[in-house]
Amino acid sequence: MDVTIYHNPDCGTSRNTLALIRHxxxxxxxxxxxxxxxxxxQLRKMxxxxxxxxxxxxxxxxxxxxxxxxxxxxLTNDQLLDAMLEHPILINRPxxxxxxxxxxxxxxxxxxxxxxxxxxxxxxxxEDGERILDEEGKRxx
Length: 141
Description:
Order of helices and strands: EHEHHEEEE
CATH class: Alpha Beta
Number of strands: 6
Strand content: 5-15%
Distance between the termini: 26 Å
CATH topology: Glutaredoxin
CATH architecture: 3-Layer(aba) Sandwich
Helix content: 10-25%
Largest sheet: 4 strands, mixed
Strand order of the largest sheet: 2-1-3-4
Number of domains: 1
């Protein structure tokens, strides 16, 4: 299965999502988007395919969001995209693209929606110790 993750190795959610993809037996294409940001068209498509607004795809925490005045409701989608492309840290993460769809995998379990349900075998525990797959690879609720 062809899977791409827009990844930030400094982000726990992104690391957990990447680990879940690999736990499914898939080695994804990993794009460290801070080093290699998506093009404007790619970013616009990822956001739309994930069913998000541009504003919903912006990361506020740990970014220049406030300093740039991006909370201004008068800003257009194009202005927000410009800011995201100029400061890739503003792109929320991780975006994951598979043939089954595109998701902003926050929380990391959102990736389950776009991976084959039968791909998981065995348990999986997130970095923080939260168990999300049992011994049979079934989601723990």
